[in-house]
Amino acid sequence: MSVLLDGKEGMEYMAMGNEAIARGALEAGVKVASGYPGTPSSEIIERLADVAKEADIYVEWSVNEKVAAEVAAAASFAELRSLASMKQVGVNVASDFLLHLAISGTRGGMVLVTCEDPAAHSSTNEGDSRGYAKMMEFPLLEPGDFQEAKDMTKWAFELSEEIRNLVMLRSVTRMSHASGNVTFGRLPKVEAQAHYHFSGSMLDPDKGPVMSYGFKHAQQQQKLKKAAEIFEDSPFNTYQGPEKPELLIITCSVGNLYCKEAINLLGLEDRVGLLKLGTTWPLPPRLLKKHLSMTGEILIVEEILPFMEENVKVLAAEMAQEIGIKKFYGKHSGQIPSIGELSPDIVIQALVDLLDVGYETVPKEYAEKAGAAAFARAPNRQLTFCPGCPHRASFWSIHNALELDGRQGFVCGDIGCYGMAVLPTGFSTTKTGHAMGSGAGVASGFAKLRQFGMDQPVMAVCGDSTFFHAIVPALVNAVHHKSSFTLVVLDNSGTAMTGFQSHPGLTVNAMKDESPALDIAEICRSMGAKVEVRDPFDLKETQEALNDLMEYQEGAKVLVLKQPCALSPEKKAEKKYNMRVDQEICLGEDCGCNKLCTRIFRCPGLIWDMEKKAARIDEVICAGCGVCADICPSGAIVREEA
């Protein structure tokens, strides 16, 4: 059994931040959890799905983040506690519904968990979702350590029910994916009975219809004021340091850990005060007034945007007659960077500059030389698709089909492993890349520009999970408007980039229950698109299909390329072919192909042997897909049935 259920009350466990959040939801008596996979948030739903049957809860990977929020909201309307989980870019997708939900309000406690990615380690951007809490007027909480990740999650449900509205809990990469000691609390036995009451008046928040009408805005703002009052005494807002510090640090989230370490390393416990805020919107004014009165200089430490910094400054300006004029440091003054992740070193440097502390950090020149030396020892390797990845074969065919067509055609992409096709690993094929599903939407727009003289063939690529997430509306639009572009669905049988989570095209759901699989090709045909299905490992048939579809000008066209990801559970460690290079045929640099296999095709399973001056197969990592045998012009690469 998972430690999330088996863990004993009062015992201390090592837990990842996302696991702590999941445990906190269980301790709160959550009954419904939904989300869409995205690093660094995925483990929350995964861990809850692992224990769904034993804990008597319902968990799903929704088709996208908006639907995930709607599913969770339905549970709340029926007086159950619910959670919706997503990464920062997913909040953009859910925002349409969230704006309405914040006005209508909730019943059972509902928590929106957004896990954000400063420095964009696994994202196209490092967007900061906290602004949504302010714009939509619902409370925002940010845990400052792993224990708080659990405890604050549990409290978030209680807060939601007290104010009858959604509560956002924000984590970041180093909170979600790092681990720390967490003392578990009690798991309640919840006998849940879902029922949606709708017989009361429109103004009855408990028994009336749940609607988002403008006349409820005043109620919404009263809820926010109530949250601010509750936050004045929140145990998640803490202060440590002298009564009259030389400098007050105000921080939140993982910045709390960095600040503690910096203060300790510099020995500034008697000079610097640390106010850690767990309730970052709305800010508790009386608590801020008390601490801003302590000193004249304040450093604000937070990741990404100066969200808290600007809100604190507004409060300070309003209180200026009572607390005096303050000097603020942070992102606007340059002590704290406005991009990327924070670290103890960044906070240390800020304190050294502001307090003239005799502490020598690593010189910038030394750090640069050390980094250069480390990279010099590491082998030079570009981002690339995995050995046996069907995307490499797909983009090989797409690139060659466009070259053969000769009309300067191009590909619109979006988010997924296949986003790397803008690089040499995908033969520099994709030429646009934005949000999930945007490739098809942008391509359909390009394809309607023929009346203005544009005759370039246009393609779009998407994954199978992305197809269900965001492609369908764009394809509907394209079919209706007879937009003649070619959509290539790279169907590798799972949400591969984030860990093979289920989606509607598969036969299981998040809880491993058998579920009906939706057929992408049949969905597209039912819309009226011209549809073909191919195996991307069959290069000849795939390229022919692509060139035929480019010639068809009567509307939207779809090519579904089906081949499981090389790392998928059903395929991993299984080889269809054993591959080898016939050394008598491969003439190396004298072959005339100019090392096509290792210089252009670039599968990591192919190696250029510097001693023999010829290609060879790395049998350890070769996935045995057999595609390289088809791209070798001399026939030197041989495949044999495994």
Written account of the structure:
This protein is α/β, with parallel strands linked by helices and 642 residues long. It has four domains: 3-231, Thiamin diphosphate (ThDP)-binding fold, Pyr/PP domains (Rossmann fold, 3-Layer(aba) Sandwich); 238-355, Rossmann fold (3-Layer(aba) Sandwich), CATH 3.40.50.920; 390-562, Thiamin diphosphate (ThDP)-binding fold, Pyr/PP domains (Rossmann fold); 577-641, 2-Layer Sandwich (Alpha-Beta Plaits), CATH 3.30.70.20. It is 37% helix and 17% strand. The strands form six sheets. The protein has a seven-stranded mixed sheet. It has a six-stranded parallel sheet with strand order 16-15-17-18-20-19, with helices on both faces. Strand 22 (606-609) and strand 23 (614-617) form a beta hairpin. The two termini are 38 Å apart. The model has no long low-confidence stretch (mean pLDDT 93).
In brief:
The protein has 23 helices and 24 strands. The chain has 642 residues and is α/β, with parallel strands linked by helices.
Layout: helices, strands, pairs:
Elements: H1 3-6, E1 12-16, H2 17-27, E2 32-35, H3 42-50, H4 52-55, E3 58-61, H5 65-77, E4 82-87, H6 88-104, E5 110-116, H7 130-136, E6 140-141, H8 146-163, E7 167-172, H9 173-176, E8 179-183, H10 217-231, E9 238-240, E10 247-251, H11 255-266, E11 272-276, E12 279-281, H12 285-292, E13 297-301, H13 307-318, H14 320-323, E14 327-329, H15 344-355, H16 364-377, H17 390-405, E15 410-413, E16 430-433, H18 438-447, E17 458-463, H19 464-480, E18 486-491, H20 520-527, E19 530-534, H21 539-551, E20 557-562, E21 577-581, H22 596-601, E22 606-609, E23 614-617, H23 627-631, E24 637-641
Parallel strand pairs: 2-3, 2-4, 4-5, 5-7, 6-7, 10-11, 10-13, 13-14, 15-16, 15-17, 17-18, 18-20, 19-20
Antiparallel strand pairs: 1-8, 6-12, 9-11, 21-24, 22-23
